[in-house]
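dumping this here so i dont lose it again. seq + smiles for zinc ion
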Amino acid sequence: MSHQTAPVCQDGSELREEIIRTCLLLRDRLGYFVGTWGNISVRVEDGLLVTPSRMGYDALTPEDLVVVGWEGGVVRGRRVPTSEMELHRQVLRKRPDLGALVHSHSPWASVCACAHRSIPVLTDDMAEVIGGEVRCAPHVPAGRHGELAKATAETIGPDACAVLLGNHGVVAGGRDLAEAVVACQFVEKSAMILIQAEALGGARPIAEDAWREERDRYLNKYGRPEDLAGII
Ligand SMILES: [Zn+2]
């Protein structure tokens, strides 16, 4: 499995506007963000750029986003960073292959999180974009930020780019923000499949050697001529 380091984004108005647009997409089109519950982080040069705490997404302007340093503490910004900032910081520190994270309380993932059920690799798209079983961290009461961050970072492991938070929600990441959003969508779809397939006798996960092969192809060959070697 080849895990490359994620590219570091340049902190600027373009990236900040993309984050705000993505918050609105996650709330209005996908229904994963509700109220002010949901937050985003993107890896930038001197830390992670995060959404602020307790601010409605409609009111967000690029200046409201906050950069938090890798050792904690606000580097730039006048707002209070998301209360789940520590979770983003610890996961991004643990996983240099991830450049952006989305944390939401999306419905199907929350069903699995409340049942403390990990989601095995069920579909080819999950193998490619998630890259492993989405494990479930134990429940940590809201407000115990350090404990929640530690449990999440310990549970995510080296493979999957998503993790469930017991009785809480989900964190999904990607090399960039667009990929993190797609990861959220595939976690949500996989959670739904896992639950619905119970009516048909239970889902049958993909064998590990097969999903590892699919993940490796997605990361290293997809969209390149060598993917179609011998065919074109
Ligand atoms: Zn949350």
